[in-house]
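Example 3.2
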Amino acid sequence: TWNPVKINFVHVWLLAKDAWHTKSWKDKLRIWWMPTGWRPADVVETYPVYKIDDVYNFDKYVVNISKKLATWVWIQMVVLLLFVSYLFGNIVTIGSPAMFLYGGYIFLFVYAFTELMDANRYALGWEIAKTVFGIALLFYTGEWFGAGKWFTGLKYILLAYFILSCLVTAYLVNKTPEVKVPDVKNA
């Protein structure tokens, strides 16, 4: 996956699943303090996990995406960098709790477009959540966290961007085949 949230939490999720599946109460607790790679014996056989044996020679994660999708991803990356730059440059004036709302928008933004990069079928749902939250923030702040003082029509540009982003993502989701992840049990 290209999704940084999934990348960072996949191992915690695997630990939680192993703790849930093991029958031993001792292993349910012990799994959280054992060395990396340790799994309860009863879980290893029943619930196999794909492991990379040779880190220098393995099939790397690649999603074949269209030029349209690649172009859209680059546009989204530039827009994301603009949003993040504005947040970091104005975090004091944005203040609390607004900076946490802004951070929530950034989280949804990253999650939405990395799901699209992965050709995930839920990408449009995440994009809709990002769009609705962005429009709600626009109405909540009146003009995007004080940025309207530099550019009067910014709220209209952002509103157009939110809607356009959702429409383009809907188009691309319908044109991009979903990525099939291999089943480790039958591999």
